[in-house]
Design goal:
With 214 residues, the protein is of the alpha/beta class. The strands form 2 sheets. The chain has a 7-stranded mixed sheet, with helices on both faces. α2 runs parallel beside α3. It is globular. The termini are far apart.
């Protein structure tokens, strides 16, 4: 990055249950979009989705609050962590958290927001396709809980996302995916069920929280 990788635009205080978390966002989303387009207008995966605090991340965090009694000492992996709200809450509630994302700028922002909230979170770059053949190091130690929010904006990502969840979630574990009701949600749920996952859907305001177990 040419400039300071973390130059906050604004500070949001987000209340989840009894926890108040601080999340800072990048200063100029339009500039980030322009920069991505200048590098490669066709590189859809370079779009800085990470730079927005999405409602589905808030919905996932609320679901984690409801599960707070099981989180202490639980190892959690978040897929597509973005600015880190769910990961930060899980860490605040006592979980050991590994946050992952594919965009090259996400790690700086995740760690910046983790520091603001006085939690420690491991961050790893993760291409879901690397989980299809179990080649990513995270696949060597599957965890009891895999989480993610607003991951279904590209239909072509569904096979890799299902493969990542399958590789990263331990036998008997659970995956929790929050989604705002995107068109690809039914296809994703069907793909998960086709690989042996049992799905339950929990609408929460305008967010759908999908729990998968096997």
């Amino acid at each position: 990055m040419q400039n300071d990788p973390v130059t906050p635009q604004g500070r949001q205080h987000v209340t989840i249950g009894e926890q108040v978390l601080t999340i800072e966002t990048p200063p100029d989303l339009d500039a980030l979009l322009d920069r991505a387009a200048a590098v490669d207008p066709q590189a859809v995966d370079a779009i800085p989705y990470y730079a927005i605090l999405w409602p589905a991340a808030h919905g996932l965090a609320c679901d984690l609050w409801e599960q707070r009694e099981r989180l202490p000492r639980l190892h959690v992996i978040e897929l597509g962590c973005g600015l880190g709200l769910p990961s930060i809450l899980a860490a605040r509630l006592g979980a050991t958290v590994t946050a992952t994302d594919f965009h090259p700028d996400t790690g700086d922002w995740l760690q910046h927001n983790a520091a603001l909230n006085h939690v420690r979170i491991e961050y790893q770059v993760l291409d879901w396709n690397d989980c299809l053949d179990r080649s990513h190091p995270l696949c060597e130690q599957p965890v009891p809980l895999v989480i993610g929010s607003d991951l279904l904006y590209e239909r072509r990502h569904i096979p890799a996302l299902v493969g990542a969840i399958d590789a990263l979630c331990a036998p008997g574990g659970q995956a929790v995916i929050a989604d705002p009701g995107r068109d690809h949600l039914p296809l994703f749920a069907a793909a998960m069920q086709a690989t042996g996952w049992h799905a339950t859907l929990h609408p929460a305001d305008d967010i759908y929280v999908c729990r998968f177990e096997r």
